[in-house]
Amino acid sequence: MILLDNFPEVSNFFSKKSFNDEELKSFIDYIEYKYPERHLKKSALSLIKLQVMKYELDLEKNTKSKSNYLFDYEKLNIGIISKKLQVSTNLIIEMLKQKGFTKNESDCLDLKQYLILEDFFKSRKKAINRRIKQEQRLFKRKLKIVKKSSYKGIPVYQDISKNGGVGKLIYIKKK
């Protein structure tokens, strides 16, 4: 905290939601120019490194938390979600109305609404996956290939009679 108090421009820079590498490099150059003394420059740069690590951890945490959801609920409207889950849009809208939210088919969900319906979404997704697996099993059963025998034609008795008896046939096969 003492470092933050000593370098308010660092806390101001990292209060922004996003920045790119060029902005960060120019900010570091600015800090190096503003604080020519070795120990102040070192302290400011270490604070910048800590803030960058904190920023990267926050980004990683946000991406992990979003990956736990079945779909990107913020970008998809209720109509698209209902198509993915193979349910009617009215069912989702009615479930939201029961919880006190009024939504249209073209509206997107927010986090609170998604969390309310998350169990329903997961159960629908599991049901769809079960149905798909069952259809695949049935399809595989139909496609099982029956192995045919390698025998190509002449019945055994005709082969014996053609060669003049069993003894001659055995003698011929040994050669």
Main sheet record? none
Shape: elongated
Q: What is the domain tally?
A: 2
Question: How much of the polypeptide forms β-strand, as a percent range?
Answer: under 5%
Question: How many strand segments?
Answer: 0
* Helix segment tally: 9
Order of helices and strands: HHHHHHHHH
Average pLDDT, rounded to a whole number, is 78
CA distance, first residue to last residue: 97 Å
- SS-derived structural category: mainly alpha
Round the Cα radius of gyration to an integer and report it: 36 Å
Low-confidence stretches: none
Helix content: over 70%
Which terms summarize this structure?
mainly alpha; 70% helix; 175 residues; elongated; 0% strand; 2 domains
Description:
The mean pLDDT is 78. It is elongated, with a radius of gyration of 36 Å. The protein folds into 2 domains: 2-67, no CATH class; 78-142. The protein contains 9 helices and no strands. The chain starts with a helix and ends with a helix. With 175 residues, it is mainly α. Helix 3 packs antiparallel against helix 4 (38-67).
Question: Topology of this protein?
Answer:
Blueprint: H1 2-6, H2 8-14, H3 21-34, H4 38-67, H5 78-85, H6 89-98, H7 111-142, H8 156-163, H9 166-174
Helix pairs in contact: 3-4
